[in-house]
Each structure stands twice: as C-alpha cells, then as structure tokens.
Design a protein that fits this description.
The chain is mostly helical. The protein is built from 8 helices and 3 strands. Strand 1, helix 2 and strand 2 form a beta-alpha-beta unit. Helix 6 packs antiparallel against helix 7. The chain is globular. It starts with a helix and ends with a helix.
Length: 189
C-alpha cells in the first residue's frame, strides 16, 4: 500500500491475517498508524498481528512502539527469519529443511535495481514526491540485498532528500542519481 492511511482503510473492507509495516524514522504518521491498528483491533475485538520491518532509521520507533508490536524484522531481511515470523501468524507448512540458495542471475538482479532507479528518475522529473520516496527506498533495499554498499548509501541519500529529512537542491539530486547509476554499474562489472 502506498501509505498507512490507505492500508488502514483497506482493513475496513477485509481484515488481513498479518500486517507488515516498515518503520523508518522519524515519522509521526507511522506512530499514528500503529495506534490506529491497535484501536481497530479493539473495535473489532479481534487481533491483527503487527510485525515491524525496521531499517536503520526505525530503531527508535521500534522501542517506542514495542508493546504494540507482535514481531520485529530487521533489514536486510533474511528469508528464513521472514518465513519463521510469518509462519507464526499464517497457516504455513513447516520448512522441509534448508532450500538450496538459488540466486537470481546477475542480469536479473541488475534489471531489478535498474528498474527502481529509472522509476525514481521518472518521479523526479514529475516532482512526484511519494514515488521518489518509494523508488529510492526500493533501490536502497535492492542495493543492500546485493551488498552494493555505495549504491545503498546513495539511494539512501535520495530517499532522505525526498522525505524532506536531508533536502538537496535539484543539481545535487541529479549528481547523486548519476553517482548511483555509476555505483550500480561498478558493482556489476
């Protein structure tokens, strides 16, 4: 869902089995969304488990909201931890041993992060702040999963700028975006 309010409105139509919520900080909207989920649970007399996915900036929010959370996952996500957490709340079969790691081919991994960067660039051209945040965040996550530290750092700068936490003038945004593209290319060379 694009934002917490949209997600909460969707819950009114159909209650999910579990909610995964990204905690990036500092963001009062996240705090209010968690409180709204708690109130919705009380009104329904049913409990929808709330699992926080915590990035580097969300740790302070996790501590504040700890009593309202049913679980915490830290980024970068590890598939086995995600599976174990979801299995607590969903009717998932137990894992049948460790599945062999079958990483995506390098060309597919590159295509995934390139797509996020291109979408960020389109959003920047339109000054679409919500999508700038979304795709910079996705690019950062992809870079972290690929262990492309420099690319992750640059994508984080773009995300923080889009969120308004560390604003950058347009020429600096363009330079950071160009540096991100170079960092990605170097990672795959």
């Amino acid at each position: 869902m694009p934002d917490s309010l949209t997600a909460l409105n969707a819950i009114d139509f159909k209650a999910p089995d579990v909610i995964l919520m990204a905690l990036e900080g500092p963001d009062a909207a996240v705090y209010l969304a968690v409180l709204r989920v708690a109130v919705a649970n009380l009104a329904r007399r049913a409990h929808i488990p709330l699992v926080a996915v915590v990035g580097q900036g969300g740790e302070s929010w996790r501590r504040i909201l700890d009593s309202r959370l049913d679980g915490v996952l830290r980024r970068p996500l590890r598939p086995e931890e995600l599976y174990a957490t979801l299995a607590r709340w969903l009717d998932l079969p137990p894992p049948v041993g460790q599945a062999p790691d079958e990483p995506l081919p390098p060309s597919w991994r590159r295509a995934c992060i390139d797509m996020d960067v291109q979408e960020y660039e389109r959003a920047l051209a339109k000054q679409d702040i919500a999508n700038m945040v979304h795709f910079a965040h996705r690019a950062k996550g992809a870079a972290l999963a690929l262990h492309a530290d420099r690319a992750a750092q640059l994508a984080d700068q773009l995300e923080l700028a889009a969120r308004g936490y560390a604003p950058l003038p347009m020429d600096e945004l363009q330079r950071t975006l160009a540096a991100l593209k170079v960092a990605i290319a170097r990672h795959f060379d």
